[in-house]
User: Fold this.
Amino acid sequence: MFDLPSTELRPKTEERKQEREARPSVVEAPQVEVKPALQRLLQLFDEGTFEEIGASVVNRSTDFGLERKKIPGDGVITGTGEVNGRTVFAFSQDRTVMGGSLGEAHARKIARIQDLAMQAKSPLVGINDSGGARIQEGIDSLGGYGEIFRRNVRMSGMVPQISLILGPCAGGAVYSPALTDFVVMVRKQSYMFLTGPKVVKTVTFEDVDSETLGGADVHGRTTGIAHMVYKEETEAIRGVRQLLGYMPSSYLESPPQIALADPIDRDMSVLDEVIPASSKQVYDVKKVVQEVFDRGSFFEIQKNWAKNMVVGFARLGGFSVGVIANQPAMMGGVLDVNASRKAARFIRTCNAYNVPIISLVDVPGFLPGTGQEHAGVIAHGAKLMYAYCEATVPKLAVILRKAYGGAYIVMCSKHVGGDVNLAWPSAEVAVMGAAGAVEVLFRKEIAQASDKDQAATAKVEEYENKFLNPQRAAERGYVDAVIAPRETRVKLFRHLKAHLAKSEERVSKHNGNIPT
Assistant:
């Protein structure tokens, strides 16, 4: 036992007691400013459900003075919570910490949350806002990106992955969002490019700013990399929440079904008038989509890219479905390189997550010309065919008007695996349009006629009556039924319910070799 040598070292009991009594009975917690990275996660998740994981992680590098910059979290917040009552994992990069740069510890946190999402079979949302690789950590930063990319690929088709770009995303960092299912961007705020404006100017002498090089509208309209583009980040976060509502938590589940709020047998007579009398006139297929599917349920994907093809999620009787529709109001609905890529990718996304596919067909063919041929329309058109052939989810199709040539085959015909194929009376199923067919079949006969125009007109009418109607296809079983437009919603709903339990076994193999 040691005696305290001085009263100076002894606790001043009386003074301490007076101090305690002078303190307020309730101590208010200091007001802490919520960082944008955390605020974004709190907006994403249902109120009160977010739980952070790895908040105390710091970097272990000692180069370039990093031993003096050991900031808890290391520039990224990771955790889990609920979105509309379902578990979701997420990470949010914090640009206020070393520019949100990715180092070893930062990467390990993201990789960890990816692993947890895979193990839990739950979606992952990544909020990207980073200056890129942390140069001070060298190869460890690059290795960290590789670990993340490998997990992106492993997760692909297992759980939905959504990338929300809310700041810069440059260099190798862009490949993680590119490997995910959906990329969401915000105008004047989001940027994605492999090399920034300064490098571009040095190498190619182009003077370009970040917005023009890789802004949200560039990727929403020109490259198709952005699946959704919004004006504000709060709107983008709400969009992600809405998108998750159409998706299952993993490939092992069906998409969530909601209570039916829109009567299946409501009046659909407006559809009887939607197709113009002349096949040369255009119309907006989105009007058909809005009528056929549950009111207000259509969630369009890549709406400003390849506008001759419309894709998106919707609900039919409360069931989540993927919609693919040719758009006659844009380029006559013709298929080209980008339209084929857009539809093929969406089909494969739906198939990965058990979302039935409904196709609305009005396609005059593939866009001709050297531009398309040299851009590889053969391979890209084959992607679309491959996607339909490969898909094992229920596949329903309705031919609204034109279905010509190879484009007819590609657009979910019976020949590439359509489960139920319906047609409106206005459907034209043929190798090509009447004028082109007559020119090939009756060229000599028309040339020898005294009135060539009258002869050509007569032959066109004859060809249309014989071939440009759905009856020939129905007789051969390529069309299951010819229905009145007003019946479309009811018929599709009944067939959808009948095929929801569809199971199609495939041969086990390493992978198919999809055209590139």
Observations:
- Residues 36-244 form a domain with the 2-enoyl-CoA Hydratase; Chain A, domain 1 fold (CATH 3.90.226.10).
- The longest strand covers residues 395-404.
